[in-house]
Task: inverse folding
């Protein structure tokens, strides 16, 4: 990972503005999204995608291998298709069977490797993988679209474009487990490889290859049904992404990995500041921006959600984008001018959408920041015990001063507690004052823990080393470590109460998923969201001719 | 023996330490200590499992040594394997750990103390589902 040295004249937006849940829950994909980073590299390095094995029957049952060949290595998606009865199909993490299960294998698996995987991968969490496995994942068919597409193709015609637009994918992944999980290789094993250095590249490659498999699968199943079946028309085919259904399990990640989140956020803020610092926009740059804006408007029209919160946000986003269209870019520092106008005039959803659009015309200013987005978290392990209690108190003020006004005795303030269920070992969120969960609470409420630390620490001699305090108060050790980390990672902390009665976990989910590059966020509740990934992305034979604008609809 | 990634072992060791009563911050240290040892071919997981019943006091001692609040370990404790991660700086040699079923059983038993028993209410409300997802 490289450190960011700011080259912008305009200052970065401060953490106090950026790290609020309402804004984080309004973020959009951008040039720095992990899917786009992956596809840019695939194109620049001319990766080949091969399909060495496709033994799938008429019902979608069997084995397929998809191999991504880089200039120096290969990675193979091992796909198992299953015959899942309808009643077993669930997106919940408590499911125990899926329509398809997958592993991303490091290199080319032998037949024996594939059989080893077949004994474990279909079991998902209940199986074991090895260091050759980089990710473990599974997907379910979209009942609304999967059968319709096969029937249409088998009957010799294309599926209804309207139906394709409404759903947007044929299968939804319900988990993609990476680093170290269930025996997978740790991230450290691959982190030094250039193609895996940016965050979540193995996971993104997995999903990209799953999409290749799923589109091949429906065409194959249509052919198995009828000799006169037709393949999907190429431009319609591009409109299928891979769905994903994400629950609470992902939410604590942002709180558990402050150094990593800092680097994601800092890269994005630096990108914005660099573009805002551009003195004048060329006609060519303005043309790129206007093209992406027009296409973003079409994408917003296709963005469906039945959730009241998202309906409200979309109702603001659409007129926001229309208002952006007419804005002049003739001023000195036109993007700064535009951004400042947006901050006063647009909803958070509109501001964050515009931010992403403003970066589009500046690959030279933005794309290199992708190298600054991973994190060596181990470097923050040691506590500087010589730091004084007074210094730690002043860090408390700097990073948690915003929470001073919270009355922690009010039941709304600590209404929730994060805990892990014995059943699936997955994070859940409960009502502290109504369920017997407080004694199982996870350390996912830094603002409350900061307040507890401050209360005691302020009575300790300011000049005493913090090591002495920790000897007497080991229960505050995790917060002292966090404060010393935040001193070097100012965008590392969410500046909202993560156990408040009205906290929305979907805001945390959306922030992370937007960095993945997901679109069309569709909350199913306050703690559960569906998304679409790689919609519009080129298939392997199209990568060489496709620009980095595939995320914006060309239809 | 179970072939484990160091990451999953670290997470399990930290949970087990928490289950044995260590603070969150010290439980993190326990996870790192086990990972540090196993990455050097040393039996850190078994060492932690062996001292969990007595609350793994070596972890608090190691942390105090690393913090600088305790200048030297008492002689009777100085040789304990679990102190080495806090005192040494040697390069790692392994990326995996081979852990015995006995050690795993102990770690899992302590880790399970951190899990809330599931109820039907938590299953639905806590995870936030409830809408049809078979569409």
Result:
């Amino acid at each position: 990972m490289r450190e960011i040295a700011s080259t912008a004249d305009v200052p970065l937006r401060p953490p106090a503005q950026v790290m609020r849940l309402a804004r984080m829950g309004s973020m959009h994909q951008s040039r720095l999204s992990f899917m786009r980073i992956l596809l840019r590299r695939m194109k620049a390095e001319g990766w080949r995608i091969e399909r060495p094995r496709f033994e799938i029957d008429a019902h979608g049952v069997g084995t397929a291998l998809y191999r991504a060949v880089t200039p120096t290595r290969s990675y193979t998606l091992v796909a198992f298709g299953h015959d899942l009865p309808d009643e077993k199909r669930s997106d919940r993490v408590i499911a125990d069977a899926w329509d398809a299960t997958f592993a991303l294998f490091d290199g080319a698996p032998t037949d024996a490797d594939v059989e080893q995987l077949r004994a474990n991968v279909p079991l998902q969490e209940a199986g074991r993988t090895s260091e050759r496995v980089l990710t473990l994942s599974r997907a379910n068919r979209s009942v609304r679209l999967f059968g319709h597409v096969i029937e249409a193709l088998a009957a010799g015609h294309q599926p209804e474009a309207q139906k394709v637009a409404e759903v947007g994918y044929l299968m939804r992944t319900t988990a993609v487990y990476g680093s170290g999980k269930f025996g997978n290789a740790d991230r450290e094993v691959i982190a030094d490889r250039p193609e895996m250095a940016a965050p979540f590249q193995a996971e993104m490659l997995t999903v990209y290859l799953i999409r290749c498999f799923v589109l091949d699968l429906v065409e194959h199943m249509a052919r198995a049904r009828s000799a006169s079946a037709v393949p999907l028309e190429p431009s319609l085919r591009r409109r299928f992404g891979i769905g994903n259904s994400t629950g609470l399990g992902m939410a604590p990640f942002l709180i558990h990995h402050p150094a990593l989140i800092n680097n994601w956020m800092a890269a994005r803020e630096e990108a914005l500041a660099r573009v805002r610092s551009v003195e004048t926009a060329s006609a060519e740059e303005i043309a790129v921006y206007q093209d992406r804006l027009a296409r973003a408007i079409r994408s917003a029209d296709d963005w469906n959600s039945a959730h009241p919160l998202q309906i409200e946000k979309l109702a603001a986003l659409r007129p926001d984008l229309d208002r952006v269209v007419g804005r002049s870019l003739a001023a000195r520092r036109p993007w700064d001018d535009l951004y400042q106008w947006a901050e006063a005039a647009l909803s958070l959803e509109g501001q964050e959408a515009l931010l992403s659009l403003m970066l589009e015309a500046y690959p030279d200013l933005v794309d290199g920041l992708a190298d600054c987005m991973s994190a060596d978290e181990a470097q923050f392990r040691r506590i500087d015990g010589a730091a004084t209690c007074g210094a730690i108190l002043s860090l408390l003020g700097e990073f948690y001063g915003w929470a001073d006004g919270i009355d922690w005795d009010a039941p709304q303030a600590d209404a929730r507690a994060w805990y892990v269920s014995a059943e699936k070992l997955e994070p859940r969120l409960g009502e502290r004052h109504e369920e017997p969960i407080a004694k199982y609470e996870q350390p996912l409420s830094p603002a409350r823990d900061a307040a507890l630390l401050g209360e005691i620490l302020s009575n300790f001699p300011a000049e005493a080393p913090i090591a002495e305090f920790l000897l007497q108060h080991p229960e505050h050790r995790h917060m002292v470590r966090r404060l010393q980390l935040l001193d070097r990672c100012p965008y590392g902390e969410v500046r909202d109460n993560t156990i408040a009665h009205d906290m929305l976990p979907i805001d945390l989910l959306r922030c992370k998923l937007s960095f993945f590059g997901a679109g069309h966020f569709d909350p199913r509740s306050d703690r559960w969201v569906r998304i679409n990934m790689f919609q519009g992305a080129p298939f392997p034979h199209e990568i060489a001719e496709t620009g980095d604008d595939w995320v914006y609809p060309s239809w | 023996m179970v072939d484990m990634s160091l990451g999953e072992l670290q997470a399990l060791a930290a949970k087990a330490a928490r289950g044995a009563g260590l603070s969150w911050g010290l439980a993190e240290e326990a996870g790192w200590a086990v990972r540090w040892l196993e990455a050097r071919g040393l039996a850190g997981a078994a060492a932690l499992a062996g001292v969990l019943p007595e609350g793994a006091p070596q972890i608090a001692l190691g942390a105090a040594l690393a913090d600088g609040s305790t200048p030297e370990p008492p002689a009777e404790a100085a040789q304990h394997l679990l102190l080495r991660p806090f005192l040494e700086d040697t390069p790692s040699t392994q990326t995996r750990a081979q852990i015995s079923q006995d050690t795993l059983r102990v770690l899992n038993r302590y880790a399970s103390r951190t899990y809330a028993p599931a109820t039907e209410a938590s299953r639905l409300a806590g995870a936030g589902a409830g809408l049809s997802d078979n569409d």
Observations:
- The longest helix of chain A spans residues 201-225.
